[in-house]
Amino acid sequence: MLIFGSFVFAQESFITSIEYGKMLYENPRGIGCVECHGQAGEGKRITEYYHKKKLITLQGPAINHLTFEAFAKALGENKKVMPKYYLTKSEIQAIFEYIESKNSTK
Ligand code: HEC
C-alpha cells in the first residue's frame, strides 16, 4: 500500500489527478483500517442504511483482542464488507504490533 502510494506520487507527471481518482474509485486499495476499525482497533460504526424498511448498521468489529494467527488469517480471507488487501506477512505483523501498542498504553 505504501509502496503503491509513493510510486504514484513519484510518477506524478505521468498520471493526472483524474486518472489517480479513477484508480482509487475503481480499486480503493488505500482505504485505511482506521476508517472501519477505529483508532486503536476498538471497532467502529461504519454506516447505517435502510434495507426493506429495516435499519441496518454496518459495524467494523473490534480487532484489538485477536491472536496474531486469527488476525493474519482474517486478512487472507475474502470478507463480505472488508476489502481484500494482499498484505505481506511483515505488513500484517506491523499493523498487528501497532494495534497492540495502541492498546497497551491505556
Ligand atoms: C470498509 C471497512 C473496512 C476496512 C477498510 C477494513 N476492515 Fe477489517 N473488517 C471489516 C468488517 C465489516 C469485518 C467483519 C467481516 C466482514 O463482514 O467483512 C472486518 C474484519 C476484520 C478482521 C477479523 C476480525 C475477527 O474478529 O475475526 C480483522 C483482523 C480485520 N478486519 C483487520 C483489518 C485491517 C488490518 C485492515 C486494514 C488493512 C482492515 N481490517 C480494513 C471492515 C473493514
UniProtKB/TrEMBL annotation:
<dbReference type="GO" id="GO:0046872">
    <property type="term" value="F:metal ion binding"/>
</dbReference>
<keyword id="KW-0349">Heme</keyword>
<dbReference type="GO" id="GO:0009055">
    <property type="term" value="F:electron transfer activity"/>
</dbReference>
<dbReference type="Pfam" id="PF00034">
    <property type="entry name" value="Cytochrom_C"/>
</dbReference>
<feature type="domain" description="Cytochrome c">
    <location>
        <begin position="16"/>
        <end position="103"/>
    </location>
</feature>
<dbReference type="InterPro" id="IPR036909">
    <property type="entry name" value="Cyt_c-like_dom_sf"/>
</dbReference>
<dbReference type="GO" id="GO:0020037">
    <property type="term" value="F:heme binding"/>
</dbReference>
<keyword id="KW-0408">Iron</keyword>
<protein>
    <submittedName>
        <fullName>Cytochrome c</fullName>
    </submittedName>
</protein>
<keyword id="KW-0479">Metal-binding</keyword>
<dbReference type="InterPro" id="IPR009056">
    <property type="entry name" value="Cyt_c-like_dom"/>
</dbReference>
